[in-house]
Amino acid sequence: MRPTDLIKLKETGHPITVLTAWDGLTASIVEAAGADIVLIGDSLAMVALGHATTLPVTLDQMLHHTQAVGRGLQRSLADQPLVICDLPFLSYQCGEDKAVAAAGSLLKKSCAAGVKLEGAEPEVIAVINRLVRMGIPVMGHLGLTPQSVHRMGYRRQAEDTLSQEQLIKQAKQLEDSGCFAVVIEHVPAGLTKRLRPQLKIPLIGIGAGNDCDGQVRVTADLLGLTPKQPPFSPALIAGRDLFINALKDWVSQQHKKEEFPTKGINQPKPDC
Ligand code: KIV
User: Fold this and answer.
1) Are 161 and 169 in contact (CB under 8 A)?
2) How far, in whole angstroms, is CA 230 from its chain's centroid?
3) Which residues contact 154 (CB under 8 A, 6 or more apart)?
4) Is the pTM of this model over 0.90?
5) Has residue 266 been placed in a domain?
6) Is residue 261 part of a domain?
7) Which of 116, 118, 226 maximizes ligand 1 atoms within 8 Å of its Cβ, making it the mutation to test the pocket?
8) What is the CATH number of the domain that holds 48?
9) What is the pLDDT of residues 202-212, one digit of tens each?
10) Which of 30, 147, 183 best tests ligand 1's pocket when mutated (most atoms within 8 Å of CB)?
């Protein structure tokens, strides 16, 4: 699958599925589940690295995780899902040259075939134009953009008519700049319904209603693994409880066994 193939999927009405992965294990699971796209989202800062926001994750860390995802994919190259990596905070906000170097290094050193970045401010549009001209496929991201959490919080975006018109304009600018798809996060479903037919490129939603060309989810949220579940992205299973209970059973079984190491027996002396 190539980024350009996604437009054909939109035209034929095939719903596009995007799931995040952050290491080899999650990549192999997401691939086996049949996702069209594996996204190494910067949400891994929170999901895998324990940060409170997505801001701290670095380009080197995104590369490290994307390389692990590449090693985890099991299918032959031709059959693998499309791999897209998020450009982390400050890797594209400081000018076009820096953005090309950041995105280029991800494509050069990992299996990523494209990058995703947030927003559609004039500076971001200039960056997207340049990346696309340099041969780097770009996915846009509008609505709730977590790298702007200190400005917009995690609230639903585009609630009023004016901001809805602005978002529609921005989505068209992303398309005109050469983005191959746009993620739209946590906005009213009615807005997505209006926007979708106005774009030739796929509109991929999360917390944006069903009228999208595809859906993206943070895999840890979908599996109910995250301690703090986003309200707009419900879990399919209570994965965290399932895992904890299975492991609790194992721990208590081990405690019952006689051969389980008992405190004080064969313990090395503290200075050994
Ligand atoms: O970082 C991420 O996982 C994302 C998705 C929520 C779209 O950007």
Assistant:
1) no
2) 14
3) 144, 146, 186, 230
4) yes
5) no
6) no
7) 116
8) 3.20.20.60
9) 999 999 999 99
10) 183
